[in-house]
């Protein structure tokens, strides 16, 4: 029974990390697209998304004690 619960927790953590990675990639894509096209709003949005993901990763590592 405990093995099944551990497997479920690993699966959930794996999905969350991949979701954060996807959001990070989309933020970088928005940043690059904004710079290339000269759209200031897309550039600002990309910077905000990338900074938010970096802060989330740093905060989560500190909470886990790594």
Give the helices and strands, then pairings.
Blueprint: H1 2-37, H2 40-64
Helix pairs in contact: 1-2
Overview of the structural elements:
There is one protein chain. The protein has a domain at 21-66. The protein is mainly alpha-helical and 66 residues long. The chain has 2 helices and no strands. The protein has helices at 2-37, 40-64.
Task: Describe this structure in a few short sentences.
This protein has 66 residues and is mainly α. 92% of the residues lie in helices and 0% in strands. Helix 1 packs antiparallel against helix 2 (40-64).
Radius of gyration: 16 Å
Which whole number gives the mean pLDDT? 78
Percent range for β-strand residues: under 5%
Question: What is the chains' assembly state?
Answer: single chain
Given as residue ranges, the uncertain stretches (5+ residues, pLDDT < 50) are none
Tell me how many strands there are: 0
Query: Main beta sheet, described?
Result: none
Helix/strand class:
mainly alpha
DSSP summary: helix tally: 2
> Helix fraction?
over 70%
How far the N terminus sits from the C terminus, by CA atoms, comes to 28 Å
User: What's the overall geometry?
Assistant: elongated
Keywords for this entry:
66 residues, mainly alpha, elongated
């Amino acid at each position: 029974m405990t093995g099944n619960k551990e497997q479920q927790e690993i699966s959930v953590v794996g999905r969350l990390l991949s979701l954060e990675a996807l959001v990070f990639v989309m933020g970088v894509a928005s940043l690059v697209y904004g710079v290339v096209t000269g759209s200031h709003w897309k550039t600002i949005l990309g910077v905000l998304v990338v900074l938010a993901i970096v802060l989330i990763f740093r905060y989560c590592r500190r909470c886990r004690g790594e």
